[in-house]
Specification:
It is a single chain. Strands 2, 3, 4, 5, 10, 14, 15 and 16 form an 8-stranded mixed beta sheet that branches. Strands 1, 6, 7, 8 and 9 form a 5-stranded antiparallel beta sheet that branches. A 3-stranded antiparallel beta sheet has the order 12-11-13. With about 375 residues, it is an alpha/beta fold. It has 2 domains: about 1-25 and about 165-215, no CATH class; about 50-165 and about 220-360, Rossmann fold (3-Layer(aba) Sandwich), CATH 3.40.50.12710. It is globular. It has helices spanning about 1-10, 20-25, 50-55, 55-70, 90-100, 100-105, 115-130, 140-145, 220-235, 250, 290-295, 310-315, 315-325, 335-345; strands spanning about 15, 80-85, 110-115, 135-140, 150-155, 165-170, 175-180, 190-195, 215-220, 235-245, 260-265, 270, 280-285, 285, 300-305, 350-360.
Length: about 375
Amino acid sequence: MKKILTKLIKDSGGSIPFIRFMEQALYHPQKGYYMTASKRLGSAGDFVTAPELTSLFGELLALQMIELWQLMGSPKNFKLIEVGPGSGRLAYDILKTASKFKTFYAAVSYDLVEISDDFRQRQRKLLKDGGVIKKIRWHSDIDKATDGGVIGAIFANEFLDALPVHLVEQVPHGLGEVGVKLTTEDKFATEIIPLSKDIAGDYFTSRGISLATGTRTEIGLPGQNWVTKTGKLLKEGMVLLIDYGHPQNDYYAKVRTNGTLAGHLKHVRIDDPLANPGEMDLTAHVDFSAILAAGKQADLELLGYTTQGWFLMGLGILERLEALSKIESVDTGPLKEAVKRLIMPEGMGETFKVLALGKGIGSPKLSGFRLNDQSERL
């Protein structure tokens, strides 16, 4: 990957915007991090996602989808579209739970949007072994999955954080973009270049954000554009997004002068985003205020926003754990640890947020947001 990026920089006149560096490092067809055959998920990989910790995550998400289906009048055809499905574990757990509700299961179709052949193979094996593959269709992009208009839910867990971002810096004369160049030793280094045409010079000031000189941060335009595009494809239902991130005021707070961009390699955080291209995960937190604004451009309405911990507790994760603990044959020790990691602030409970956007369904109070809806923070 380093050779590919080095050639790209030289062919581009000596510098490329960081967003292009990130795009290539993650999604180059042959050498990109997500495109190669390697262990990324789990204890032997670079990171762990919520569905890998316990099946309760998918089970509770299935219950939220069933509630949505009921609120929509229990349509005979209800589409679930999962974007960036990783190992396929979430799809498996949702469908196994859904199969216990015969009328809902009969109505459901389940589409996976996945561009990585390696991930597709892993998903196919898991879902085939689990006996739910007959419900699954694969697509390379969201357009092909929607069939002209979705009635149902489009959702993603840890998808937006993996999309490329513009890296910018507040310099004395305004806002500059961070580019990647080569040193005399052909090592990667950053420099300030003119803003890309798709970034407005007043991107921050128009939102009431003032950055101190020297502040380096991210603008997730690809994620915002994806939400607007996806919202337009939704005919009736919900877009549900689970990811680590912040409302605008927290994301661009004065204490966060170096942004949120980081790499992850063997469960170790790498602060240099130029290190190990193609070999490590590279992510940035999500500005959920910007995502909400992008959704409104597609006539999506805010249904709820809260932390992952409160969302799962609203869906009854503690009650489910208590019920399982009363079954003598169930060893709930590991399960309790997984639940703690999912909901406690020192684990994933506070860092991860859940945003629900709806279209054509009014303003129902979904169970996931019943305990502590924090929509006013956006």
